[in-house]
């Protein structure tokens, strides 16, 4: 009886091992999906920076400039929910050669502008009111999630089409997807602001175009393993 049990146990283990090591016929392909859209909003990060030898005076001057900036933003009818103070700092800076301490005050405001026709006017006004550093300009889409979904679907379709092309010459068929890996990245163009026309203020009132918005290209990249029937 013990020999019979031992024999059945060995047979079961052998069958299980055979099932575990059985290879599944697969085809591995990459797919890409692209959706190009025009941005419908721009996110601007701008800073007022003030330097001086007296900490109290430096902070006061910086606060006054930022107050003027915020009032201008409101005057441009930007909704309150679409702009906010992002960072405030007052830092001492010691000059070892002159053995003196100066101070550097900064305040950063982040603005989401949903009317792109006001971009030039807003940028010029910000500089006129005291902004002296444009940290970031990013053109975006308010429907980004929707377009990302479209790009992913196109990527899967591209992967399936490639798999069908490869196996068609072998007389086989593509079955269900076995694994799917997503390696997507979002690219958002950043325009060059015509050598910062607003900063120079030399062409104030000119009708020259200062930016090329371009398009947002949303790309989805997937790796898919299909089972071969």
Short description:
The chain has 229 residues and is of the alpha+beta class.
Relative helix content = 25-40%
Q: Which radius of gyration do the C-alpha atoms yield?
A: 30 Å
The main β sheet shows up as: 4 strands, antiparallel
Morphology call: elongated
Q: Please trace the helix and strand order, writing H or E for each element.
A: HEEHEEHEHEEHE
Number of helices, where a helix is a run of at least 4 consecutive DSSP H or I residues: 5
Question: How many β-strand runs?
Answer: 8
Q: Roughly what is the average pLDDT, rounded to an integer?
A: 84
Task: Specify the oligomeric state.
Answer: single chain
Amino- and carboxy-terminal Cα gap:
44 Å
| Percentage beta strand | 35-45%
Uncertain spans: 4-8, 191-207
Helix and strand composition category? alpha+beta
Task: Provide structural commentary.
By secondary structure, the chain is α+β, with helices and mostly antiparallel strands. It is 35% helix and 36% strand. A hairpin with a 4-residue loop joins strand 3 and strand 4. The longest helix has 25 residues. The protein is elongated, with a radius of gyration of 30 Å. The chain starts with a helix and ends with a strand. About 10% of the residues have low confidence.
Comma- or semicolon-separated keywords:
4-stranded antiparallel beta sheet; alpha+beta
């Amino acid at each position: 009886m013990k020999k019979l049990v031992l024999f059945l146990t060995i047979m079961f283990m052998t069958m299980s091992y055979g099932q575990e090591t059985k290879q599944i016929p697969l085809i591995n392909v990459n797919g890409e999906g692209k959706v190009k859209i025009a941005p419908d909003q721009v996110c601007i990060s701008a800073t007022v920076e003030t330097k001086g030898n007296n900490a109290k005076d430096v902070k006061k001057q910086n606060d006054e400039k930022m107050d003027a900036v915020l009032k201008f933003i409101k005057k441009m009818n930007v909704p309150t929910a679409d702009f906010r103070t992002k960072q405030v700092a007052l830092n001492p800076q010691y000059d070892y050669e002159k053995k003196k301490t100066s101070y550097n005050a900064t305040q950063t405001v982040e603005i989401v502008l949903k009317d792109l026709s006001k971009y030039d006017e807003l940028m010029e006004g910000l500089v006129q009111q005291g902004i002296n550093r444009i940290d970031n300009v990013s053109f975006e889409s308010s429907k980004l999630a929707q377009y990302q979904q479209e790009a992913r679907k196109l990527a899967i379709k591209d992967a399936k089409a490639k798999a069908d092309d490869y196996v068609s010459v072998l007389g086989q068929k593509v079955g269900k997807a076995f694994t799917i890996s997503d390696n997507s990245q979002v690219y958002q163009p950043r325009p060059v602001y015509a050598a910062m026309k607003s900063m120079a203020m030399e062409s104030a009132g000119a009708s020259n175009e200062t930016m090329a918005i371009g398009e947002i290209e949303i790309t989805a990249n997937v790796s898919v393993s299909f089972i071969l029937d």
